Recover the amino acids of this structure.
C-alpha cells in the first residue's frame, strides 16, 4: 500500500475533474514526438521587437523589478496601459486605481471570475471558448452557459436572440471574447451595442477578453465593450503583451476597469501569483509606447501569413473560415471526408507532418465543434510554406481514367 491513501475520494477537486490535461499540451507533445510542424498552440516562433527585449535586459541589469514589484504593477506600466487605452480608444483610466497588471491574460481571467462569481451564479460565454474560461468558471463555483457562434456565410456569427435567451435571473456575468479565439470572428459595432444594452438592462457584469485587439484585418475594427453606453462601470477589459509583442513567455497581462472592479479582482489576484514578471513589466511599458507603425506593421505581417495559410488550406481541400481577427484559422474537415476533429488531429502528424487543434475541445456542445479544426499562423513564413506543402498531400486526388 506504499504511496496509496485509504480514501476512495479522487485527489483532484471535483470541480476540475472534467478538464484533465489541456489539448495544447497533448498536441505539442505529439509535435515533438513526431517532428511535425506545430500549428496547434498559439505562440510565435520568433521573438518580438529587439528594442523591447533589450529593455528587459536593461531593467534586469539596473535592478528594476528583480524584487517584488508593487501589487498593482509597476507605475510605469500602469501609466503606459492607461495611455494605450486613451490613444487607441479614447478611454480614460486612472493608472493608480483603474489598472491592474496580471500574470498574463490567463490569470486576469481567473482572478476576475474568482472575484466576481459566487457558487450558483451563471456565466454566459460565447462558444467555442478558450479552454481556461470553463475551468475558471468551475473553480469559482459558477455555472457556464454557452451561447454558440454558428457558421454562416463563411464566418461564425453570434445570434443575439440566443444570447438574450441565455440570460436568466441567475446570470451574474457575460464573458465576451473579441477578436474571438478560435473562430477569428470580430464582433461588429451593432453586435457589441446589443450586448451592452443587454448588460445594462439586466444589470450584468461583463468580462471582455480583448487580447487580439491589434490583430484585426480587412476593414474589421476592434471596439472595446467598455466604450459603449453604460458599460464603463460594469466591464473588466483584459489585455496582453504576449499577443501584441510576441513575448508570450513573459506572461504580462492586465485589466482596466472602474476602481471597485479593479479592487475586487486584485483581492483574488493577490492570492494567486501575488506579483510577477518584474523586469518584464518595465519592458512592456516601453513596448506600449512604440509608434503606431509597429502595431500596423505587426497586423499587416500577420494578415499576409493568414492569406498564405488560408490559401494553402483551401488548396488542400479544407473548408476555410477566413478570420477577421486573431492569428488562428478555423477549417472544416468534412470536404476531406472526415467529421471527427479529434481523430483527424491525432492522425495528422503522421499523415502530413503538421499539428492542429480540434475545435471541439472549446465547446460544451462537442457535436457542434466536431468537424472543425484550428491552425495557428503566428509562425515564420518559411514554416507556413512548408506546412502548406505538407498539407497539400491531403488534397483529394481525381479518379484515374
Amino acid at each position: 500500500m506504499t504511496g496509496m491513501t485509504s480514501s476512495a475520494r479522487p485527489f483532484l477537486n471535483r470541480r476540475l475533474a472534467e478538464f484533465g490535461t489541456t489539448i495544447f499540451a497533448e498536441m505539442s507533445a505529439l509535435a515533438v514526438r513526431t517532428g511535425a510542424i506545430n500549428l496547434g498552440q498559439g505562440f510565435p516562433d520568433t521573438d518580438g521587437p529587439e528594442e523591447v527585449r533589450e529593455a528587459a535586459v536593461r531593467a534586469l541589469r539596473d535592478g528594476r523589478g528583480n524584487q517584488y514589484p508593487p501589487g498593482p504593477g509597476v507605475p510605469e506600466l500602469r501609466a503606459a496601459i492607461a495611455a494605450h487605452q486613451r490613444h487607441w480608444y479614447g478611454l480614460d483610466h486612472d493608472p493608480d486605481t483603474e489598472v491592474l497588471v496580471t500574470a498574463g491574460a490567463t490569470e486576469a481571467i481567473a482572478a476576475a471570475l474568482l472575484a466576481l462569481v459566487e457558487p450558483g451564479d451563471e456565466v454566459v460565454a460565447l462558444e467555442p471558448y478558450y479552454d481556461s474560461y470553463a475551468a475558471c468558471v468551475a473553480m469559482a463555483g459558477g455555472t457556464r452557459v454557452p451561447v454558440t457562434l454558428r457558421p454562416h456565410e463563411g464566418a461564425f456569427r453570434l445570434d443575439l436572440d440566443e444570447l438574450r435567451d441565455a440570460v436568466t435571473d441567475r446570470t451574474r456575468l457575460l464573458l465576451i471574447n473579441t477578436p474571438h479565439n478560435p473562430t477569428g470572428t470580430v464582433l461588429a459595432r451593432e453586435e457589441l451595442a446589443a450586448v451592452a444594452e443587454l448588460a445594462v438592462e439586466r444589470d450584468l457584469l461583463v468580462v471582455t477578453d480583448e487580447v487580439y485587439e491589434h490583430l484585426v484585418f480587412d476593414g474589421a475594427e476592434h471596439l472595446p465593450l467598455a466604450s459603449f453606453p453604460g458599460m464603463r462601470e460594469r466591464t473588466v477589459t483584459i489585455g496582453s503583451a504576449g499577443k501584441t509583442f510576441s513575448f508570450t513567455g513573459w506572461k504580462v497581462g492586465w485589466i482596466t476597469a472602474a476602481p471597485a472592479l479593479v479592487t475586487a479582482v486584485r483581492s483574488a489576484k493577490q492570492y494567486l501569483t501575488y506579483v510577477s514578471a518584474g523586469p518584464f513589466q518595465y519592458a512592456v511599458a516601453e513596448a506600449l509606447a512604440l509608434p503606431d507603425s509597429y502595431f500596423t506593421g505587426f497586423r499587416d505581417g500577420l494578415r499576409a501569413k493568414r492569406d498564405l495559410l488560408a490559401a494553402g488550406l483551401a488548396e488542400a481541400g479544407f473548408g476555410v473560415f477566413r478570420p477577421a481577427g486573431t492569428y488562428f484559422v478555423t477549417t472544416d474537415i468534412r470536404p476531406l471526408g472526415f467529421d471527427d476533429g479529434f481523430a483527424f488531429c491525432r492522425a495528422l502528424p503522421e499523415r502530413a507532418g503538421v499539428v492542429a487543434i480540434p475545435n471541439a475541445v472549446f465547446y460544451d456542445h462537442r457535436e457542434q465543434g466536431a468537424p472543425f479544426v484550428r491552425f495557428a499562423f503566428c509562425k515564420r513564413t518559411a514554416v507556413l510554406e512548408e506546412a502548406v506543402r505538407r498539407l497539400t498531400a491531403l488534397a483529394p486526388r481525381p479518379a484515374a481514367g
Observations:
- The mean pLDDT is 95.
- Residues 112 and 265 are 5 Å apart (CA to CA).
